[in-house]
Design goal:
2,3-Dihydroxybiphenyl 1,2-Dioxygenase, domain 1; three-stranded mixed β-sheet; about 45% helix
């Protein structure tokens, strides 16, 4: 066995840097987005001080990226899983964008990322990976689905050497320098937008279903759709980008800007740019057209919500949508008014402090014993709320490291030129997390399980340090607690 010098986190960091360089060369607005993000982050740090780094220091936030790619088959998704496992990234979460989108987005997805906080801290990189569902008859007729399956089965996205190197890195927990260079070069090249001509008639037919379907199924390669930086104030970033003349989508996806702490994930993006693409016409000639497949997205991360917190988020989101739908019957509701309605509802219904979010089991925190003895003395109380109130322990927020299906679908559909085609009367294809785990051939982690384990481990440490029985410090156990 050769000496291992490049560990998974080093491969991950190097891969993220190479993708950033690639995307910056190919998408001219991307360096502008990065520069604006850095400027906003520095301004927020200057005005808020340490409070700005409550959910991550500026060094990590500045390095943080999430990418997005699209594949067509379970085989391709499984191969993606092997490549990312070589970099210490594992599938977390099941996202069904077919149900979350109002327009036709016939994909399911997962996100590959590091699992524990130390790994996230030294290599904060995630890749949201979508997979087409040709068997879903709401989108694809039986004939189109068969032809699409055949086209997807007839292509190779990742060269055998890349997959062999990925398997070697998994087995050896890294690669020697020469193999690491080969692995990184091949992995980066696999996500480069191909210059090869696309069959015009096939692309057009798939586009009638959805532009995402055409992007996935019409070519013989995949590519990076976006590479998202993290910003500390997404509302300011949105205004800065519009002020620089860049066309943004009409809203910020996710929770509203409200009086309480940042929760979950807020995302927005520039409109996908019209990029030149060669097409092969039916007579064999090569012409040029434009496609919109890559865009600059930006995100702001908040505190991870518990199962109860997510249920409340979904409830409030649905309530806002119902209000907007009722109002739209008389006149369209502008995005700023929708944001105002959402913020007003959140300010009425959601506790506006970290302590209250923790006390009501709406957000995840870890707990540590206060070292300076700020408590009143005597024996410690037996519940987390009392320990917090009396100053025996402090709560640290757990950052949300995952995604929201409705927001992801919103970003997708905001960059589509047409609504596409979806037959609500046709039978859908039932897919779930267990199915996706089988397609991947590896465990699919549940996000709540990961966050809850961090919380419960911290509670156990607090109980031990204070000499309290852990059973007297109840913590809600989330679904999927027995997942690997």
């Amino acid at each position: 066995m050769p000496e291992v010098r490049w560990e998974p986190h080093q491969l991950r960091a190097a891969f993220a840097r190479r993708l950033s360089e690639l995307f910056g060369r190919d998408v001219p607005a991307y360096p502008t987005l990065l520069a604006a993000t850095r400027e906003v982050n520095l301004r927020v740090l200057g005005s808020q001080g340490a409070r700005a780094e409550r959910l991550g220091d500026l060094s990590r936030v500045g390095d943080e990226r999430h990418g997005a790619i699209r594949v067509g088959t379970p085989r391709e998704l499984s191969q993606v899983g092997r490549i990312f496992a070589a970099m210490g990234m594992y599938p977390v979460g099941f996202y069904d964008l077919r149900e979350a989108a109002t327009r036709a987005v016939p994909v399911v997805a997962t996100a590959f990322r590091p699992l524990d906080p130390p790994e996230l801290a030294r290599g904060p990189f995630r890749v949201f990976t979508s997979m087409l569902v040709p068997g879903d008859r709401r989108f694809f007729t039986a004939d189109l689905g068969r032809r699409l399956d055949h086209a997807l089965a007839d292509r190779t996205l990742f060269p055998p050497l890349l997959l062999d190197l990925a398997d070697r890195a998994i087995a050896w927990h890294g690669l020697d320098p020469a193999d690491a260079e080969s692995f990184l070069a091949l992995a980066t090249d696999a996500l480069r937008l191909s210059p090869e001509p696309v069959d015009r008639a096939w692309f057009t037919e798939l586009s009638r279903v959805c532009a995402v379907a055409a992007d996935i199924g019409a070519g013989r390669t995949t590519h990076l759709n976006h590479l998202t930086p993290r910003v500390l104030d997404i509302d300011e970033l949105y205004a800065v980008m519009r002020g620089r003349g860049l066309e943004m989508i009409d809203t910020i996806q996710g929770p509203p800007h409200w009086a309480g702490p940042d929760l979950l994930l807020r995302q927005t993006s520039m409109r996908a740019l019209a990029e030149h693409r060669p097409f092969r016409e039916p007579d064999g000639t090569i012409t040029h057209g434009t496609v919109r497949v890559r865009f600059g997205e930006v995100e702001s991360r908040g505190i991870a919500a518990t199962v109860r917190g997510r249920a409340l988020y979904d409830e409030l989101t649905a309530e806002v949508e119902e209000t907007v739908a009722d109002a739209t019957r008389s006149a369209p509701v502008p995005a700023p008014e929708r944001a105002r309605l959402a913020a007003e509802l959140w300010n009425r219904r959601v506790p506006a402090s970290e302590a209250a979010l923790a006390q009501h089991d709406l957000a995840y925190f870890t707990y540590t014993v206060e070292p300076d003895g700020r408590h009143p003395g005597g024996p410690p109380p037996l519940t987390l709320p009392d320990l917090l109130d009396q100053g025996w322990i402090r709560a640290e927020p757990i950052v949300y490291e995952d995604f929201l299906p409705r927001s992801a679908a919103g970003i997708f559909q905001s960059n589509l030129d047409t609504a596409g085609r979806r037959d609500a009367a046709a039978p859908g294809t039932e897919l779930d997390a267990a199915w996706l785990a089988g397609a991947l051939g590896r465990p699919l982690r549940d996000p709540h399980t990961l966050y809850d384990r961090l919380r419960r481990d911290s509670v156990a440490r607090v109980a031990e340090q204070l000499g309290l029985p852990g059973r007297l410090l109840p913590v809600t156990v989330s679904p999927g607690d027995d997942a690997p």
